[in-house]
Each structure stands twice: as structure tokens, then as C-alpha cells.
Write a structure and sequence with these properties.
The complex is a heterodimer. By secondary structure, chain A is an alpha/beta fold. Chain A has 4 helices and 7 strands. In chain A, helix 1 crosses helix 2. The model of chain A has no long low-confidence stretch (mean pLDDT 91). In chain B, helix 1 packs across helix 5, helix 5 crosses helix 6 and helix 5 packs across helix 11. Classes of the chains: A alpha/beta, B alpha/beta. The interface between A and B is large, with 36 and 37 residues.
């Protein structure tokens, strides 16, 4: 059981996502081309699902959707333990010239995003790629930064940020868990 | 999600649990999509070196493994028995040790002797994958058969699958029987008594003497190739007679109470164990089997490469 109170509860999460959606619209509007909202498996997918209906009505062109399973592009196959779970990737047939917004739950080391960028490059050449994350917890191991951030928190290396979404976890919240409890 | 280790080698389905087999099939699903991409390649096995050691001729299986390896970005070397030191009398274990001295990571082996893959796996550190050993097992073929059945029916449990033909010489049959029964399917075998192994009833399968009975019973038929090259004794009177009695023909299938899915591991002897209009018919999944073969082999290679049981599972929001 966590003793700490959530960093975001369901209502706060809704508010933060709404603000992220309008920031995304602001940033992609200038490009004018097709926009693709791509969720990283697994929690990024549900967050993209929440953002899509907020973003789509404010765009000139229809919002395209995608799902990115980055397991096969990870750089740590030998250390992630037995039988890693491979998630599927589904992207629009043409990425060339699009503005892609990658959505993930937590930005930490940056390695997931690195893998996502590598995978994306094998599918085409978007005009621009943006990164939107619900939580930026610092601790980067690569020179990567998010364009749209819901919440910035300072954490210790041994703490964990858990993003829960109702579709998968039964409730919407963001909590900080000390390592000893995870 | 719980993670299930496969161990170091894939020798056969006999040693695998229902959970392990299901984990391989589930992992194969996302790999199907990799072969549909514009760039059919992911970097998962970059830097791994894989040797395909084929002591018996093979086209489909070897190419399928090679595609699987290349689409995972592994570096591959093919060794065939003819034109290598094997033909100079080098033993299997010497060949493998020499390869291992060149710092390889995995060996895919096809060999005429039952038990060759296990023998090798016990003696080298690299992961060993059995691509068919004698009359013993051909696990990746059975896995792709299972995946194809699951695609078609949405489940394996409760399916009635009959293996028709030369069960005696068939490692495909043996692996299928292990895999199907472990996943809860009912298995039948049908063929001339001379081509059914004596212990077949002990494997928990139903024996059909007539192919018509098998057709009436089954949801799917897995029709085996008559392995003419392994038949030294007179197992059957003639190919024509075999076709007349055990051949799967459209006339026989027309008598079935339902539509039957048709599988064949290839290469086919058209007009012997299977007629052309059945092989090319609407219920044939023979080509989807081949497509699934690459995905299943990618899954096995990937899981073995990442699946060393002594590695701790590191969670974390990276």
C-alpha cells in the first residue's frame, strides 16, 4: 500500500490532459499538414486515447492515430529478464510529411523515447516529431526533452512513478512509490 | 504480466508446458506485423550471431529461419553438410565447438539423428534450436501449425485435429501431438498401420483406420508428406494405391459434415497424400502456415535470446 497521496487524482489528471491537448494543438497548428497521435505501449496508448478527442476538433485535417510497441528496439534485451512482452506497432501507412506527436506516461531515462524515435525512422520520415508526456520525473540518461509536459516532479533514482489509467488499472491517478514498496 | 522463461534451448514441445507454448504463440502475434512493414527489420537481435547448421536438405525451414534471423537483425551463417568439414568426417560436437570458438550465440540445427539437438544443447553454451532431428521433433513446425489453427479457430482447446499419413517417420507429427494435447486439443492420427508408430495409442490419440472416418471427425487435417526418402522397407504397396486409400481428395472432403481446415507442412506430393484442388482450395491454410513460420521462429529466437533464467526482472518506468 502506498502511504503517499497521489500526485494527481482522477480530476487533476483530466485537467492536466486538457491543458496538454491545447498545448499540442498550439504546437502542431503551424505545420498545417496531417497530424498523427502515437501512443507508446502500454499506458501511452490510453493517454493518447484521452487526448485524441480533445485535440481532433481543433485541427483542420483529420487526426490520425498510431500505436508504438518499442520492445524490439530496446537496448537492454540481455538485462530485462526472461521472455519480455512484445507489443504490437500500428502506424498509418504514410508517415512522410506528417507531424507526429508521441505520447507516453512517464519520461525518465529517455531510453524508451530513443527506441521510439529509432522505430519511427523505419516507417518513414515525418516532417516533425513532438513528445508529450504526462509526467517528467527527471533522471535523463540521454539528451532528450519533452515538448509538452503535464506534470514535472523531482524524484530520487530509487523511487517509482506509477501512472494508473482506468482502462487498465481500474482508476485514474499518478502516484510516487518509494522503491521499497514497489 | 507474468514472464515465462523458455530455458536455454528449444529441443521439442514435449518438454514445454502449456504456459510456455502459449507464451511463444502470444509473442509471435506482434512479429507477424514486422514482416508487413516497409522496412522488414527490427534491431532486437543486433550483434547476435546465429549459425544455421543443416545436416539434412531443407528449403522452407532454412529460409524461414534465415528470414526470421535477418528480420531481427542477427548476423547469420549457413552451414550445410555437403561442402563443409562435416563431409570430411568431423563429429557434430567438434563442428559445434569450433563454431562456438568463433563466439556465436545461437545454433539452429537440422539433423538426421533423433536426439541430435539435445546432444548439442547439452554440450555447448550457445542456445540451440531444433529445426528437425530425425524422427524425434520439429518444434517450430508444430508451433506454426498451432498458431495457424489459433488464427483460424480463435482457440486450440477442444479442437479436433487429425494428422494424416506417414506418422511413423514424422517429427512434425510427434511435435504436433505434444503441442496439441498440451493445449487441450483432441488429436487423431490416420494412416496405413505400417506407417503408425506402435506406441501411438499411449500418446493419448485416437487412431482412425480409414481417412473417411477421420474426415467425419475432424475440424482440421494436418496432412503429412509421404517421406519417400526415409522409406527403406516396403511400407506401402504403391503411391497410386496410397492415394486411392488415404489421399485427401475433394470428393472425400465433400462428404464431411462441416468444412475442414487443411494443413500440410510441405513439401507436398500433389496427387499422393493430397490432391491439388484440396491444396489450393478455399479451406487450405498451407500458405498462411508458411507466413506464420517466420513469425513463430522470430518469437522463439527472441525469447531464447532474452530469456536467460538467471537474469533478474527489472521493472521500471524507463
Amino acid at each position: 500500500m502506498t502511504t503517499t497521496s497521489p500526485l494527481l487524482d482522477a480530476m487533476a489528471m483530466r485537467r492536466v490532459l486538457a491543458r496538454m491537448a491545447s498545448e499540442i494543438v498550439e504546437r502542431v497548428a503551424a505545420d498545417g499538414g496531417p497530424v498523427v497521435l502515437v501512443g507508446i505501449q502500454t499506458r501511452g496508448v490510453q493517454l493518447a486515447d484521452r487526448l485524441a478527442p480533445l485535440v481532433a476538433p481543433q485541427l483542420a485535417a483529420p487526426l490520425q492515430r498510431g500505436v508504438l510497441g518499442i520492445t524490439l528496439y530496446r537496448d537492454d534485451l540481455s538485462t530485462i529478464g526472461p521472455s519480455p512482452v512484445v507489443h504490437e506497432t500500428r502506424l498509418p501507412p504514410r508517415l512522410d510529411g506528417t507531424t507526429v506527436v508521441i505520447v507516453d506516461d512517464v519520461l525518465f531515462t529517455g531510453r524508451t523515447v530513443r527506441a521510439a524515435l529509432d522505430e519511427m525512422a523505419d516507417f518513414g520520415r515525418p516532417r516533425r516529431i513532438l513528445l508529450a508526456v504526462l509526467v517528467d520525473r527527471g533522471g535523463r540518461e540521454l539528451p532528450i526533452a519533452a515538448d509538452v509536459v503535464g506534470l514535472t516532479v523531482t524524484t530520487r533514482q530509487d523511487e517509482r512513478i506509477m501512472v494508473r489509467v482506468s482502462e487498465v488499472d481500474g482508476s485514474d491517478e499518478v502516484v510516487l512509490v518509494p522503491r521499497s514498496e514497489s | 504480466m507474468s514472464r515465462i522463461a523458455l530455458g536455454k534451448d528449444l529441443v521439442g514441445l514435449e518438454q514445454l508446458s502449456r504456459e510456455q507454448i502459449t507464451a511463444i504463440l502470444d509473442t509471435a502475434e506482434p512479429f507477424k506485423e514486422v514482416s508487413e512493414r516497409p522496412i522488414k527489420k527490427v534491431p532486437a537481435l543486433r550483434g547476435k550471431t546465429i549459425v544455421n547448421l543443416f545436416f539434412e536438405p531443407s528449403t522452407r525451414t532454412r529460409i524461414s529461419f534465415e528470414f526470421a534471423e535477418k528480420r531481427l537483425s542477427a548476423d547469420t551463417v549457413n552451414v550445410a553438410s555437403s561442402g563443409s568439414s562435416v563431409s570430411k568426417g568431423e563429429t557434430l560436437v567438434d563442428t559445434a565447438r569450433n563454431l562456438e570458438a568463433m563466439r556465436i550465440d545461437m545454433v539452429v540445427i537440422r539433423h538426421g539423428s533423433s536426439g541430435a539437438a539435445q546432444f548439442l544443447g547439452d554440450r555447448i553454451r550457445s542456445n540451440v534450436i531444433n529445426a528437425g532431428d530425425g524422427k524425434h521433433e520439429h518444434p517450430t513446425q508444430a508451433l506454426l501449425d498451432l498458431l495457424t489453427l489459433r488464427d483460424r479457430f480463435g482457440r486450440i482447446e477442444g479442437l479436433k485435429v487429425c494428422i494424416v499419413g506417414d506418422v511413423l517417420h514424422s517429427r512434425v507429427a510427434r511435435s504436433n501431438i505434444w503441442g496439441l494435447t498440451r493445449l487441450g486439443a483432441e488429436v487423431g492420427v490416420c494412416g496405413p498401420l505400417t506407417l503408425l508408430p506402435r506406441e501411438v495409442a499411449e500418446l493419448g490419440v485416437t487412431v482412425f483406420r480409414r481417412v473417411e472416418e477421420a474426415i467425419e471427425w475432424a475440424d482440421a487435417l494436418n496432412i503429412l508428406r509421404l517421406q519417400l526418402e526415409r522409406m527403406t522397407a516396403g511400407f506401402i504397396p504403391s503411391l497410386r494405391e496410397y492415394n486411392r486409400v488415404f489421399g485427401v481428395t475433394s470428393a472425400r472432403l465433400a462428404q464431411a459434415p462441416k468444412e475442414i481446415v487443411i494443413m500440410h507442412p510441405g513439401p507436398m506430393n500433389r496427387g499422393v497424400e493430397i490432391d491439388s484442388d484440396v491444396a489450393d482450395g478455399p479451406h487450405s491454410v498451407i500458405l498462411p502456415q508458411v507466413t506464420n513460420g517466420v513469425a513463430v521462429r522470430m518469437a522463439v529466437l527472441y525469447l531464447l535470446a532474452g530469456g536467460s533464467p538467471d537474469w533478474a526482472t527489472s521493472g521500471g518506468d524507463a
